[in-house]
TrEMBL record:
Transmembrane regions: none
The entry's keywords: FAD, Flavoprotein, Oxidoreductase, Tricarboxylic acid cycle
Endpoints of the signal sequence: none
Protein name per Swiss-Prot or TrEMBL: Probable malate:quinone oxidoreductase
Flavoprotein in keyword set: yes
Gene that this polypeptide is encoded by: mqo
Length: 503
């Protein structure tokens, strides 16, 4: 393979789950297209997509309380939960297609069945959870959800959380067995390996420094080979900026007007991890609680069983924190150098508006291990400090932009595809719900950037994702059939292990 300058159809910047997903989709839709991937690290899936840098929750809104809101009349709005669930079904269908067609193998290496639970304390929260359960369990996408405030039942579901629990405070939980734990790092590497077998040119330790339009409408990238120090120029008809936290800077360098007046606000994450097998075997679920007042939605505390490298571990967090870096391996100047004349007012407005958030993040960063253990003891009253270690997870760069509803400098918590009007370049910003919805988001990139090819590609997309273009909410039979088929293909329908109660 020629490792000099290239002129290709597609360049993907970054080897995280987003580029891996887009590359895999494009290889199915246009097998003849040449694709090149540039990744500045030595391996795929080493930044946010790495298994230790995110929580590995297959976000299907089965347990995350922040995807439902309480209306003033006390009823519960589940529309966002339905949307997130539908998006996760799209991922499941694509992953199942890839397994069935031997593009990737051994799904148990990247996805495991795991009950998803919501857990609350206090009379008012218990009441809310019950109303939320009633709204969700009546919906076809959330069937099988159970609710309980009976301590006996809860001991059966989450023995570790009930052990040594004292006091009269009411608690309650919901549980649904169709949840998953996803190892996005392994999945990313599986997809990149598959792309390599399809002759995709993947260059690690290659950092994209600059990009500009050429007079003939192509994109020219200046890419530095970090091993040799040599900088080369590479051109492509289409560029996807899937650089995670690095995407905003590259989007700004592209100079496209759609990338103006957008800023980024980094939020870092820390987890507590427990590898003591005696403790680990007493818990078998992802249990999401309620965010504390003033906390951003992505710092909802949760206690998760994780399956990483054939080992089970427990993860608790995330504790939010503030760091000016946009990537875990980024620079302390990332935040300041992202401020440009065109986004200065937006950033200043956000700075004023989000003063309390910044204060909250700095406070979180200052917590001692014992203070973090106290938060964990809300979930696991008997948790011992010696069983838990602190690990640094990935950085999330939240999008800041001017919106009609929020005004100037509004912090966004979702993901955003920003693309040029001619569809020749697209960037992905933001990180929530994140990797779980990678397939849905990358289909959005395809719809925005390849409108001429879309009609011809639709039959293939429907073959890979049978629900494409349809609402599963409106087609419960289709939901049943895709859910069953994907459970089978991904090995999610077998008998599930229970948590072991140790008295
Ligand atoms: C603490 C935390 C918890 C999370 N929990 C979950 C969860 O439970 N479930 C979920 O679905 N999502 C979760 N997410 C979000 C999820 O991890 C991200 O949305 C997802 O991994 C982003 O993938 P990506 O491919 O866009 O970015 P990344 O995985 O960060 O990949 C970007 C790649 O681009 C490379 N790069 C950057 N700049 C350049 C350059 N100039 N040249 C070449 N390469 C470059 C980087 O090295 C990196 O490898 C979490 C995130 C965090 C931080």
């Amino acid at each position: 393979m020629n490792h000099g300058q290239t002129s290709t159809d597609v360049i993907l910047i970054g080897a995280g789950i987003m580029s891996a997903t887009l590359g895999t989709l494009l290889k199915e839709l246009a097998p003849d297209w040449n694709i090149t991937v540039f990744e500045q690290l030595g391996r795929a899936g080493e930044e946010s997509s790495n298994e230790w840098n995110n929580a590995g929750t297959g976000h299907a809104a089965l347990c995350e309380l922040n995807y439902t809101t309480e209306r003033p009349d006390g009823t519960v709005d589940i529309s966002k939960a339905v949307k997130v669930n539908e998006q996760f079904q799209v991922s499941r269908q694509f992953w199942a297609y890839l397994v069935q067609h031997q593009r990737i193998r051994n799904p148990q290496d990247f996805i495991m069945p795991l009950p998803h639970m919501s857990y609350v304390r206090g009379e008012q929260n218990v009441e809310f959870l019950k109303r939320r359960y009633e709204a969700l369990s009546a919906h076809p996408l959330f069937q099988g959800m159970e609710f309980s405030k009976d301590p006996g039942k809860l001991r059966e579901w989450v023995p570790l959380m009930m052990k040594e629990r004292k006091g009269e405070e009411p608690i309650a939980a919901t549980k649904i067995d169709s949840g998953t734990d996803v190892n996005f790092g392994t999945l990313t590497r599986m997809l990149l390996n598959h792309l390599k077998e399809q002759d995709v040119d993947i260059r690690y330790k290659h950092s994209v420094k600059k990009l500009k339009r050429t007079p003939d409408g192509l994109w020219e990238l200046k890419v530095k080979d970090l091993s040799s120090g040599v900088t080369q120029r590479h051109t492509a008809k289409f560029v996807f900026i899937g650089a995670g936290g690095g995407s905003l800077h590259l989007l700004q360098k592209s100079g496209i007007p759609e990338g103006k007046r957008i800023g980024g606000f980094p939020v870092s994450g820390l987890f507590m991890v427990c590898n003591n097998p005696e403790v680990v075997r007493q818990h078998h679920a992802k249990v999401y609680g309620k965010a504390s007042v003033g906390a951003p939605p992505m710092s909802v505390p949760h206690l998760d069983t994780r399956f990483i490298d054939d080992q089970k571990a427990l993860l608790f967090g995330p504790f939010a924190g503030f760091s000016p870096k946009f990537l875990k391996t980024g620079s302390m100047f990332d935040l300041i150098t992202s401020v440009k004349p065109h986004n200065l007012l937006t950033m200043l407005a956000a700075g004023v508006k989000e003063m309390s958030l910044t204060k909250y993040l700095v406070q979180q960063l200052m917590l001692s291990k014992e203070q973090r253990m106290e938060e964990l003891r809300d979930f696991v009253p008997g948790a011992k400090s010696e069983d838990w270690d602190l690990i640094v997870a990935g950085q999330r760069v939240q999008v800041i932009k001017d919106t009609v509803e929020g005004g100037k400098g509004t912090l966004q918590f979702g993901t955003e595809v920003v693309s040029a009007v001619d569809g020749s370049i697209a960037a992905l910003l933001g990180a929530s719900p994140g990797a779980s919805t990678a397939v849905h988001v990358m289909l959005e990139v395809i719809e925005k950037c390849f409108p001429q090819q879309l009609e011809a590609w639709k039959p293939k997309i429907k073959e890979m994702i049978p629900s494409y273009g349809l609402s599963l909410e409106g087609n419960p039979e289709l939901f049943q059939s895709v859910h069953q088929a994907t459970s089978q293909a991904l090995g999610l329908s077998e008998a599930k292990p229970q948590a072991v109660s140790v008295s």
